[in-house]
Amino acid sequence: MASKYLATLTKQEYDKLTGKLLHIQSNNCFICCEIIDLDLHDTNIDHITPLANRGKDSEENFAVTHASCNKSKQDSDLRISRVLATLKKIQKETSDKDNNKSASLEDVLKYFGGSLYSFKYKIENNKFSYSFPDINDNKVYYSEIFEDCLSKEKTVFLNLPIEYLFHDQLINPRGINNSISLLVKEFFKGNPQLHISLARIKDDKVMIFDGQHKAVAQLLLNNRKLLLRLFLKPDVDRLTETNTNAGSVLRQIAFDKSIMRQLNNTLYFERIKRYQVEHNLSNDDFDFSEQQLVDWFKGERVNIRKYIVDSLKHSITNSPENKLKDYIDFIGKAKELPLSYSAFEKTFLSQFLDSKLILTTSIGYKTDEGNNPRELEINQLVKLLNIIADIIYIGKFNPDIGVTRIEQKLIDKKDANITDEHLIAYRISKEEIIHNWLQYLKNVVENYFNNTGKIFAKNKLFQTPFDDQLWLNLERFVRNLIELPLWKDRSMASTIFSGKNNYDFWKHIFETGKTPDGADVLLKPLNFVEMIRE
Questions:
Q1: Region 202-210 average pLDDT
Q2: Rounded to an integer, what distance in angstroms lies between the CA atom of residue 103 and that of residue 167?
Q3: How far apart are the first and last CA of the chain?
Q4: Phi/psi of residue 209, each to 5°?
Q5: Cβ of 326: how many Cβ atoms within 10 Å?
Q6: How far apart are CA 99 and CA 86, in angstroms?
Q7: Cα(303)–Cα(400) distance, integer angstroms
Q8: What average pLDDT does the segment 416-426 reach?
Q9: What secondary structure, in 3-state letters, does 306-322 show?
Q10: Strands, sheet with 154-161, edge to edge from the N-terminal-most edge strand
Q11: Would you place residue 193 in the very low, low, confident or very high pLDDT band (cuts 50, 70, 90)?
Q12: Distance between CA 379 and CA 385 in Å, rounded?
């Protein structure tokens, strides 16, 4: 809503008000808190509290901002915009520092001076006592210990300074999602927090594992203490499983698939430890199979199978050597990266891994020889992903250009900054297209094994060692694939690539060279034997 007060000011009066407000603001933009230099920056005067929210149209309700900050502000209330601008700064710093990593509670705590000290406490006569000497608060506080009737877990309810709080990456590895802005607005109104954060003590540190977004919203609104429920000596396996079920079976929170894989990976290794303990095995004795795990935990057979497969998917996707993961959008709705995690899973992981395969050989089988089936599967799939990353994406796909409206920009002739290499990488990454060219890549492997007389099982393809020649064949296939003219043909933006097509549409193109309605796309059908020739 426009200001009638500002509309009455002359330019000289407006400039004088700008100077007065800047002096009050220490020459900093009200939103981003960075310096305003009137010789370098355009500025705006705006209402701090919007008129629509009963803010006054007078000097005490005005602030100066960079014109660019005001234009891109995330809320009409400048105070909320400032809070969200702080979060955006934290997210950018985290991404720049750690290779596009999403910010989490850990990053926000550290930004505001949290996560510094171990927590000093003791338990006597069902009383929990504690103190904060590291921040010069030597008072001894007491809290009653409560025992849950069903789980028998013991907890206390505490209001703890952020200097003693840490993020539990084991149980809750999620980053911050877009819902945080809604929480900030809700708490800013003074509406109460209906679900407090949950934490546990690990190595004398208070680790928050649930209610991360609520904790972040409070931190952004300058809370220096957080109210939480602290579990005392909990069953971590059970907490992890409960937190996982909340995001899957119970649907209380929306865990994305990559986080589910990570949590199930944790649960898988917890089950391995339990099996070792219950069979009096040392922690380095893996002389038992995946099938034995499934059989031992009888009441959890379905879950154990899922844990095994998800652990495998997690190990491949998050391998430190996996170069392709830099081009996968793990959070969702990102506009900078070519592959969504969902597409990656439905194509690469689904086609090359058998989700029903549970091995009967011991988990440690042939590890010393470097031929352990699961390790081979992981390492060889990561190597294939790296070949694809090197040839298609690295140095070619530009995240600054991203994936937003690429085809429309081609149609509108606003594509001067879109290189052929970027266009190729973008188009070849569509889920329905990847699904089909990976079928040919799989044929390259199977054909090689057949021609060399190797015995192999189709559901264990990557558990068979690949020869150097086979790796060369795979590399040649990918190189020849990106050289196909259709990927950089900009005239196809309004036809072949104008919308999302199904798997069968591209299957027909690769098999015939034409669309289902007869339009020419390829010079001839795709032939995987020809595609591995130099």
A1: 94
A2: 12
A3: 65
A4: -115, -5
A5: 15
A6: 20
A7: 41
A8: 96
A9: HHHHHHHHHHHHCCCCC
A10: 146-147, 154-161, 225-232, 197-202, 205-210, 165-167
A11: confident
A12: 10
Candidate ranges 83-87, 185-189, 235-239; pick with highest mean pLDDT: 83-87
User: Which two structure tokens, joined as six digits, stand for 289?
Assistant: 């199979």
What span, in angstroms and rounded, lies between the C-alpha atoms of 208 and 169? 9
E strands in 37-93: 43-47, 62-66
Distance CA 68, CA 437 (A): 44
Residue where the block lists tokens 């931190």: 219
What structural domains does the chain harbor?
4-90 (3.40.1800), 105-247 (3.90.1530), 319-532 (no CATH)
Question: Is residue 461 within 8 Å of 374, Cβ to Cβ?
Answer: no
Orientation angle between helical segments 78-97 and 180-188, nearest 10 degrees: 140
CB 207, CB 279: distance < 8 Å? no
Beta pairing, strands 328-329 & 339-340: parallel
Q: How many CB atoms lie within 10 A of CB 268?
A: 22
| pLDDT given at position 239 | 85
Contact 420, 490 (CB under 8 A): no
388-398: pLDDT as tens digits? 999 999 999 99
